[in-house]
User: What shape does this take?
Amino acid sequence: MSVYLHPVCLPFVCLFSYVTFRADLQQDIDSETSGHFRDTLMNLAQGTRMEGYADPSTAAQDAMILWEACQQKTGEHKNMLQMILCNRSYQQLWMVFQEFQSISGQDLVDAINDCYDGYFQELLVAIVLCVRDKPSYFAYRLHNAIHDFGFHNKTVIRILIARSEIDLMTIRQRYKERYGKSLFHDIKHFASGHYESALLAICAGDVEDY
Assistant: This one.
């Protein structure tokens, strides 16, 4: 399973799903998933994220809770972890991430990857990356699709086409900054034939990428 949908869109997808397919997305999430992964998806689908400015004192408290959740990993700590990531405002979470770095000396994404695994881990990382910087999230998804899943074609095509007229240039920049190789380079290395040519045409590239 791949967590691709931007979390902020999930409430609108619930409505679209019901109007178009007469299907209740929350019911499907409840029946098809389980555990803390399900609880986090349900929280996102309800669209209860707060709005407003950041509170430094609350941010420090939230960062400490996140740190404890990455250390102890009890059910209660997992609940608190997903509640903070799903319900705090984006401004608040930016400050929480900074406080977490100060407290732990570690980036929250790295801490989550070290402490959790499976679908729950994927979803938590997706939330953090989307809140922090959406192009970085898509760069992360592309890198995983190219390197970790034997070139997951649907994911690569979906992201390149969906973001081609939005922020693909920025995604390319984030990709190269994070992974040291350009997106163009990796597509050329792992794809072939007409499929490679089509992807490269969408991706484009800088002179040094060729």
Observations:
- The two ends are 33 Å apart (CA to CA).
